[in-house]
Design brief:
Helix content of chain A: over 70%
Structural class of chain A: mainly alpha
Mean pLDDT of chain B: 83
Distance between the termini of chain A: 51 Å
Oligomer: heterodimer
Distance between the termini of chain B: 8 Å
Largest sheet of chain A: none
Strand content of chain B: under 5%
Low-confidence stretches of chain B: 288-311
CATH architecture of the domain at 73-275 in chain B: Orthogonal Bundle
Number of helices of chain B: 11
CATH class of the domain at 73-275 in chain B: Mainly Alpha
Helix content of chain B: over 70%
Mean pLDDT of chain A: 88
CATH topology of the domain at 73-275 in chain B: MetI-like fold
Number of helices of chain A: 10
Largest sheet of chain B: 2 strands, antiparallel
Low-confidence stretches of chain A: none
Order of helices and strands of chain A: HHHHHHHHHH
Amino acid sequence: MNVLLDYLPQFRDGFLGTLAITASSALLALVLGVLIAGFRVSPIPPLRAFGTAWVTVLRNTPLTLLFLVAFFVVPQVLFQGASPYVLATLALGFYTSSFVCEAVRSGINTVPLGQAEAARSLGMTFSQTLGQIVLPQATRTVLPPLSSIFIALTKNSAIAGAFGYGELFNLSKLLNDKGYAIAWIFLWTALAYLIITFAISAVFRLLERRMGVAR
Amino acid sequence: MSGASVLYDVPGPKARSRNLVYSVVGSLAVLALIVFVVLRLNTQGQLAPEVWNIFNNAGVRTNIRDGLLTTLQVFAVAAVLSLVLGVLLAVARLSDHRPVRWLATGFIELFRAVPLLITIYALWVLLLSNRDSLGLAGNQPQFWALVIGLTVYNGSVQAEVLRAGINSVPTGQREAAYALGMSKTQVMTTVLIPQAVRAMLPTIISQLVVTLKDTSLGYIITFEELLFTARQMSTNIIVNGNDTYVPFIIVTGAIYVAMCLALSALANWIEQRGRRAKTGIGVATAGEPVTATDAMEVSDAVSDGPAATKD
């Protein structure tokens, strides 16, 4: 019990750290995921192949390995001096983008055929059909899986703490080193994660209600 | 591409030439990306033959093999235990006794909501500080922290998957079984669970892929599985003044991807086989592991929801 009161500022910082890393990598994952999903359904074979390779590799690689790449290979080989925050965002964002891509792609497939056909018969191009007709409608079906993906992302962000980025897991390690009972630390961090994940599902439920249109 | 996509027409001559231009530009862009990375790696001396020669060393190969075996060992134990726990929790969650139901629900919700890494870490600290009274030696605290952590997390997820499967069995089955005079236990074990497992097998295996990937969390609690071994060797083996992260990560990554793809292929095969068989049991789609995307909406897995698409 004491551990929370004694280290309230640290808990706040850890909580904010988790929020920050989750938000930035969610944004990166969303942008990349939609882009790659566009590649995967496009009429251009090389882009399709690239999209498939992207999803296959990233979905089947352990996230810890991607963190190793981000923290040891990227600084050594590509660019130096990036902060743990940037590197962790890259690892989490790239990993999650593959799940977002698959969710978006299956969302695209649930849009009734007639919609795309009508768009095409009006003379719309592929990107117009996708951007103006199909994706806006797909958004609704994609929301529930996206919410699950972002909840998983929140939990995955704990790995960033193991690589030295200051968030809730990092804090637990720190407090444990100071000799506090692990059970209490566990309880409070669990509670903090619960707050975030509940908030995410509440936001998405709200979005679903807002966007829900009878088809 | 069967029947092409609905998103674009079968291209005419003009579109074909335009697509050709895009194809060339697209390939060039992808190629440029690859060339850039390869060139960078090359200037850093990561592609020199000496760097890759380390895999000719018998010691390195033995270490990788041992790491792989440890990973598989953790995976095997955790997979079996999580399936057992999953069945127990699913049955408990559907129990008629309210306290049992609540306990199981609380357990599932708690461990599904907490990051697996934090569970594993807490277990590791607990086991390490009590190692003497528990009679654990060597790296056993890490092993059991990893196995128990994977078991409670994946067991909770598998429980939700199974529960969705049990609920998807037509009510007539249950009613018929009761009408034959079967007891509750008999109905569960001989009628409901077998059908639930059959329907959910692809999802269960997809979840096992997640379990396999998550064994790499052992790296963080310094358990010597594949990833940790690779990491250690890459800092210890220095070639031309560089540590050897790149070759080790490429090789280990390839091993992980291959193992996960093999398991996913199994899930897809079972899904297709299940669709052909005329048992009347709907088989879930293998595509989406319920978790990674987490088991919040498991019940969707059975319906032909958005998860149903595959190439």
